[in-house]
Every structure is written in structure tokens, then in C-alpha cells.
Automatic annotation (TrEMBL):
Enzyme class: transferase
Compartments, as annotated in UniProt: Cytoplasm
EC number(s) reported in the record: 2.1.1.198
Gene that this sequence comes from: rsmI
Alphabetically ordered keywords of this record: Cytoplasm, Methyltransferase, rRNA processing, S-adenosyl-L-methionine, Transferase
Pfam families reported for this sequence: TP_methylase
Highest taxon of source: Bacteria
Entry keyword annotation includes Methyltransferase: yes
PROSITE patterns (alphabetical): RSMI
GO molecular function annotation: rRNA (cytosine-2'-O-)-methyltransferase activity
Protein family membership: Belongs to the methyltransferase superfamily. RsmI family.
Species this chain originates from: Hymenobacter lutimineralis
GO cellular component: cytoplasm
Catalytic function, reaction form: cytidine(1402) in 16S rRNA + S-adenosyl-L-methionine = 2'-O-methylcytidine(1402) in 16S rRNA + S-adenosyl-L-homocysteine + H(+)
Protein name in UniProt: Ribosomal RNA small subunit methyltransferase I
Length: 236
């Protein structure tokens, strides 16, 4: 029997919860939540009431052992994050890994996540893409940016509104000002917006705004394959 369920929740629009997510949240013994207040409100909206435990980045390591003991005794649990799919730039990975190592069955429900609509709204190639999550803020940032210059797949980043302009400017520096990029803001919400422009223009567009609010996904087109071949030829 499945003991742990990873349950995606809406990234804005509450209609995006799945029927299965509602059923599982109603059936498990305990709900593990990144923020019990946020998830408590969601549960209440769908008429659900369950014992909740907090499971977030800062207590993940110390919680895992205690949770494993309870799961091993047969308690069923659903892990939810504040929004979207648990384990995607959110806690979850550690618990899943430890459950699998002990032969405990884990089920992952498909559902809302911000990267997929942002990728598709960019109109860039979606056959092959790389999810970069959040760029390192300080240590390792330059190295990562340099590595990305070789990337031919479409790149997807999560970014905070305070850092988006700086990130766009830095990407324009390393990938070139003309590289097409797309910012999706407030996906599934009332003020949802997607702006697709060359990196330098996109940076200018956001730098000119009085305030940048809401959550952001940045999508950057990969490097054109031909250019790499040309460079290799130049190297010979
Ligand atoms: N687990 C989530 C998922 O599956 O997408 C991601 C959690 S991560 C801590 C939060 C980041 O996701 C935000 O900083 C933003 O980059 C992105 N995000 C979440 N909801 C979003 C939305 N409605 N519109 C745009 N970006 C969103």
C-alpha cells in the first residue's frame, strides 16, 4: 500500500487542484505541509480537515527520521508545499529518497507546477529543456552562468521579483543581448503576464517598472546548434 503521497496544489488559481488531489488529501491520516497555515486554508477551502505537521526546508533533516518511523507503522501521509508540486524547488526530495531506500511506497500525483506553463507560453522549443530552478545567489553564480553559455536546450529558471532585473542583465552579458527570453509573472492569477523579448530589451522593460510584484518564471532560448559548430571550426 502507498504510505506517502506527493500532492501538487494550485500555483494561484484554485480550480487547478485535481480531483485525485482532493480525494487523497481527504483519505490520508496526516498532511505534511511546508506552511501549515497556508495549506490549512487550502484544505478548508475544499472542506477538508486533517491533522497537519510542518515539513519545510529548515526542519526537513530532523523531521525525516520521525516521519519514517510513523510511515513504517502504516500511517499514510500526503506532502504538500505552499504552491505547485512538492520537490520542485521545494522540500520533498529527502523524504522520498529515504522512503524508497526503506521500501516504503511513494506515489506522486501529477498536477500544477509553474515551469510547464511558462515554458509553453514562451513559444521556445519544448522538445528538450533544462530546469535550472533558482540560480545561486552568490557562491557559484558566475560559474553557473558561464556553464549556461554552452546550453542548447531551452532553459527555465525560477526567480524572485527583486532579483529579476539583475539576473536578466547578467544573462544578457554572458549569453548576448539578442538571445530571446520570456518572463512569465503571476501564472494562473488575475494579473498573469508573459513578456517575450531579447534579453537586453527584457531587462530594460522590467528595469523601467516602478515595482515588480508577484512570482516569476524566466525562460531563455538555448544556444543555436549551428553556432557551436562554427566555433569548433574556428578552434581547429
Ligand atoms: N513547487 C513550485 C512549483 O512546482 O512550481 C515552486 C516553488 S518555488 C519555492 C517558488 C517559485 O516558483 C517562485 O519564486 C516562482 O519562480 C515560481 N512560481 C510559483 N508560482 C508561480 C506563479 N503563479 N507564477 C509564476 N511563477 C511562479
Amino acid at each position: 500500500p502507498t504510505l506517502l503521497y506527493l500532492v501538487p496544489t494550485p500555483i494561484g488559481n484554485l480550480e487547478d487542484i485535481t480531483l485525485r488531489a482532493i480525494r487523497v488529501l481527504g483519505e490520508v491520516d496526516t498532511v505534511l505541509a511546508e506552511d501549515t497555515r497556508t495549506s490549512g486554508r487550502l484544505m478548508q477551502h475544499f472542506g477538508l480537515k486533517k491533522p497537519m505537521l510542518s515539513y519545510h526546508l529548515h526542519n526537513e533533516h530532523q523531521q525525516v527520521q520521525r516521519l519514517l518511523e510513523r510511515l513504517e507503522k502504516g500511517e499514510t501521509m500526503a506532502l504538500v508545499s505552499d504552491a505547485g508540486t512538492p520537490g520542485i524547488s521545494d522540500p520533498g526530495f529527502l523524504l522520498v529518497r529515504e522512503c524508497l531506500a526503506r521500501g516504503l511506497k511513494v506515489e506522486c500525483l501529477p498536477g500544477p507546477t509553474a515551469l510547464v506553463p511558462a515554458l509553453l507560453k514562451s513559444g521556445f522549443g519544448a522538445e528538450r529543456f533544462t530546469f535550472e530552478g533558482f540560480l545561486p545567489v552568490k557562491k557559484g553564480r558566475q560559474t553557473r552562468l558561464r556553464e549556461l553559455t554552452q546550453e542548447t536546450r531551452t532553459m527555465i529558471f525560477y526567480e524572485s521579483p527583486h532579483r529579476i532585473v539583475k539576473t536578466l542583465e547578467q544573462l544578457a552579458e554572458v549569453l548576448g543581448p539578442e538571445r530571446p527570453a520570456s518572463v512569465s509573472r503571476e501564472l494562473t492569477k488575475l494579473f498573469e503576464e508573459t513578456v517575450t523579448l531579447p534579453l537586453a530589451e527584457l531587462a530594460a522593460n522590467f528595469a523601467a517598472r516602478a515595482a515588480i510584484k508577484g512570482e516569476i518564471v524566466l525562460v531563455v532560448q538555448g544556444r543555436k546548434e549551428e553556432r557551436i559548430k562554427e566555433d569548433h571550426r574556428a578552434d581547429d
